[in-house]
Amino acid sequence: MGTTSFLTRARALLRIRNQLVRECLAELLSTFVLIIITLGCSAQKIAFFETKGNIVTSYVGSAVAVMVGIYTAGGISGAHMNPAFSLAMCLTGQFPWWKFPIFVVVQTFASFISAGAVYILYYDAIWYYSNGTLTVSGPRETASIFATYPADNISVANGFLDQVIGTGVLLVGVMGLMDARNKPVPKGLEPVVVALLVLSIECSMGANCGCPLNPARDFGPRLFTYLAGWGSEVFRWVEGRG
């Protein structure tokens, strides 16, 4: 009886009543879950010489991460997890413009701390694989664990177009799934369908630039690598990285 009473009082004290704070915390948690799983898949693929993961596990893992993120906070913040999606929601009048910069900051910060968590989790493996040197290019580069970089001989223009088309397909697909006047997805399965959409885009448009489709997912971890020792090269367009 005493334990129940204590838990009830603790829940009452810890309960957050401010709606904006609740939404920001939900967005932080959902984006953190999305990015830590996504980057973790990349770390297993790269830092373990592709013996613990490969391109398939990276694609499947990151797609499932989207599903988990939506289930984590979809009912509170909408689980945008992506500034591009938040912008699309604003442009269609489904999200207030004044919340847009707040969500972008939260999503980027969540991506940043997710990168830190993956770095800590795979610290020994990253340093072993890199031979003690954190680089953006070369046969033992590790920067691509955290951010996406172009494939060999991909120009800036082609890379830009790649991301515009890939992100556009993602947004059209998600907005179509959300449209109540369209063919509805069975209630509760929306995150599963979005995950399959992401997986299909990764499988069809991931070769050029790694298919980030998410400014926060790319910039937050990229900023982390800059501060953690990879240097300013992480912000340069690197061609012929291998």
From TrEMBL:
Keyword Ligase: no
GO molecular function: glycerol channel activity; urea transmembrane transporter activity; water channel activity
Predominant place of localization: membrane
Gene Ontology cellular-component terms listed: basolateral plasma membrane
Topology within the bilayer: Multi-pass membrane protein
Pfam families noted in UniProt: MIP
Entry keywords, A to Z: Cell membrane, Glycoprotein, Membrane, Repeat, Transmembrane, Transmembrane helix, Transport
Residue ranges of the TM segments: 20-39, 59-79, 100-122, 160-178
Localization annotation: Cell membrane
Gene3D superfamilies hit by this protein: Glycerol uptake facilitator protein
Domain of life: Eukaryota
Keyword Signal: no
Catalysed transformations (reactions): urea(in) = urea(out); glycerol(in) = glycerol(out); H2O(in) = H2O(out)
Family: Belongs to the MIP/aquaporin (TC 1.A.8) family.
Free-text function comment from the UniProt entry: Aquaglyceroporins form homotetrameric transmembrane channels, with each monomer independently mediating glycerol and water transport across the plasma membrane along their osmotic gradient. Could also be permeable to urea. Also participates in cell permeability to H2O2 and H2O2-mediated signaling. In skin, transports glycerol to the epidermis and stratum corneum, where it maintains hydration, elasticity, and supports lipid biosynthesis for barrier repair. In kidney, contributes to the reabsorption of water, helping the body maintain proper fluid balance.
Assembly: Homotetramer; each monomer provides an independent glycerol/water pore. Could also exist in other oligomeric states.
Name by which UniProt lists this protein: Aquaporin-3
Organism: Erithacus rubecula
Chain's gene name: Aqp10
